[in-house]
Amino acid sequence: MVIAGIVAGGVGQRMGQSNMPKQFMKLAGKPVVIHTIEKFLASPEIDAVVVGVHPDWLHMMADLTAKYFPEEKNLVLAPGGDSRNGTIRNIIEKSEEMFGADGGTIMVTHDAVRPFLSMRIIRENVKAAEKYGVCDTVFGATDTIIQSENQEYITDVPIRKTMYQGQTPQSFRIGLFREVFQSMTEKELEGMTDVCRMFFLRGHKVYLVEGDSSNFKITYPFDLKMANAMLEGGSHD
Amino acid sequence: MVIAGIVAGGVGQRMGQSNMPKQFMKLAGKPVVIHTIEKFLASPEIDAVVVGVHPDWLHMMADLTAKYFPEEKNLVLAPGGDSRNGTIRNIIEKSEEMFGADGGTIMVTHDAVRPFLSMRIIRENVKAAEKYGVCDTVFGATDTIIQSENQEYITDVPIRKTMYQGQTPQSFRIGLFREVFQSMTEKELEGMTDVCRMFFLRGHKVYLVEGDSSNFKITYPFDLKMANAMLEGGSHD
């Protein structure tokens, strides 16, 4: 079994004056998260979709899914947790409860605010997670990446060809997630914004799936404008 | 004295079927590089502009500057070098020859294919280069950054809040560049795609100037579409 876990835990902070979380903003007339859900429902690899939503926004999300997917039995909501990984854990529990997921089930986690992922990326995630247990979708950095430990001056400039921007999906077997998540100390979980970092810290080889420049995250108002322009402009090549 | 050095050394490889370097592609009816030059000519901090262009495209560039800036005395071209740093060295030589630049002159180097830089970014670059000798324009990473030494699986996931995407301008005193560039071995210069990395490797503190999400690089056809959409859509907030 393969389940898509869509992380829509955000409460809307970086979008300027608006208080609405980015996943609910309109893109070509439809909320961003609805576009994302549609992609997974359309993928032949995916058996069910679980959307993790911040408790404050669960009601609104339920209204949206009732409106856009009234007949869809393979789509359910889960309450978001305190952190991204907490939300993923809640998505997993909901998957077990509703769809009988077990340790061997593949969970394809994805940002609600990356509506432009392709069928190719979903397919390669499922394949890599089945083969290796865990994988990450990445895109070779176009900009030089620099590190600053003090926010004042550069403390490292790693060689560019080894650097990637992490995208999503990030996919893994549920059993492996449980094992790793339970082994983390509270201190380790602090500021752990990335699920693959957790696997990496426990010594798992996290295999790479090639992302796409169009699979970007809608973070700033600028990004939403870009995303709307993309859809209005027709196909994105 | 402050001189802008615009790096337009590209010969056009990542833009799909087109053979035209990205800096010459049309953005709202005008070549990308012309937009970029206009920004620097409009900045009160900048005394002159030198554009480094690949030898194969010098003639075309000269036609463009004659067309768009027929009366401009403070704009000249320099032939591009074998590498980005080689192009910057040629820009510096041309600045000395044409404008009497010396070791104390501030050189504000910028990618021709980042036409959306702001006056604020130019101003802060000049200020930081005057104060510290060298600075880099960076933008906090929105995506997790990952490292893979083998292109197969993750070999590091640095803490996100310490990671930045390098943009340009990258600004420095010409005397400092000469000192650092001359000290590099041929092996060190191989694959040195970033001028700030060179300063960093020689122990200089490269101070950070805050970039902007709109100051992106036009690399893929997707980016050009975005850039056009931005300009058609009016102001980018």
SSE series of chain A = EEEHEHEHEHEEEHHHEH
Tell me roughly what share of residues is in helical segments of chain A.
25-40%
Largest sheet of chain A, described in full?
Answer: 7 strands, mixed
User: What is the subunit organization of this protein?
Assistant: homodimer
Structure description:
- 2 copies of one chain form a homodimer.
- Chain A has 237 residues and is of the alpha/beta class.
- The first copy, chain A, is 36% helix and 22% strand.
- In chain A, helix 2 (58-68) links the parallel strand 4 (48-53) and strand 5.
- The model of chain A has no long low-confidence stretch (mean pLDDT 91).
Write a brief structural summary.
Chain A is an alpha/beta fold and 237 residues long. In chain A, 36% of the residues lie in helices and 22% in strands.
Supply the key terms.
alpha/beta; two-stranded antiparallel sheet; 10 strands; seven-stranded mixed sheet; homodimer
Strand and helix map with partners:
The structure is a homodimer of 237-residue chains.
Chain A: E1 2-8, E2 26-27, E3 30-31, H1 32-42, E4 48-53, H2 58-68, E5 75-79, H3 84-99, E6 106-111, H4 119-132, E7 134-140, E8 145-147, E9 163-173, H5 174-183, H6 186-189, H7 195-201, E10 207-210, H8 221-232
Parallel strand pairs in A: 1-4, 1-6, 4-5, 7-10
Antiparallel strand pairs in A: 2-3, 6-9, 7-9
